[in-house]
Amino acid sequence: MSNGVGGWIDSSGPVSFDDLRKQWGYTQSSVPINQYYRGGGKVPGTVLPNSSGQYSSIPSSGQIGMNQFRNHKIARIIRKNHQGPTNDNNRETYSLNYQALYLDLTGWSTSQNVSVNFQQRVDNSGNFIRMYLYGPVNGSGSSTPFNGGYAIRGQSDIEYGYGGTQWVEFNENQSNNTYSVKGGYYYMFRSRDDSARSSGIYCGGENQGGGAGTASGGRNYITVHDAGSCCGDNNTGGNADFAAEVYITGWS
To answer: Any residues with CB less than 8 A from the CB of 136 and at least 6 apart, and which?
Structure first.
C-alpha cells in the first residue's frame, strides 16, 4: 500500500508541507520538492499499482501548488500500536480503540464501495489457512463494533473473537479474488488456522518473533503465521505459511 492516507488533506482550508509529508508517507522534516511531482518518486505517475487513484491534477514538472494535492484517495495498512514499518508518527489510529493490523479505507466516504483485491503469493502450510477483514459495520451500515484486538505477535485468529462483521475471507484455495468493501472505515485483519485454531497476521517488514523472522514484502504483503501467533521456524519468503498481496483496484 502507499504510505499516504486519503482524507488527510481537506477540500478547503490551508495546506502545509507537513500535510504533504503525512499524505505521501514521509517522516523526515526536509523533502525535495521534486519528489512531489507526479511520477517524481513519491506521487505515482498515473495509478498506484496497489492503491487506485488518478493524480492528473498533480504536475510532473514546472509550477506546483498546494491545491493540486487535495482529495486523492489512498488506502493504507496500519497497525495500532505502531510497530516497525507502520511507525509513521501520524494520527490515523487515534480513533481506534483496539490494537490490531488494519486496512484504512477512511479516504473514501461511507456511501462508496471500495474494490479490495487479494492475490495469493505463498501457500506453504500443512494446515488450512485463511485471512480476513472485519469491519465495524455490517452490509446495511448498522454498527457492529469491535470488542477487542491483538498486539503485534498476538492472537489474530478468529477463534478469539474481537467483534465486528466479516467482509472478506481469503483462503489458500483461492489464487485471486476481489471483494466490495464499504468505504469510510478501518477494517481489522484477522486469520485462521483451522487445525491449530491459533495464528498471527503481519504486514511486510514486521517482526514475527524468534526464528519466524521479518515478514516479507511491502506493507500490502500480508503473511499469516500458522500453529501459533509468532516465533518458531522461518515464516518469510517462500517459507511463509500463507501470504497474499492486497490491492485497491477501484471504487464506486
So the answer is: 143, 144, 145, 146, 164, 165, 185, 186
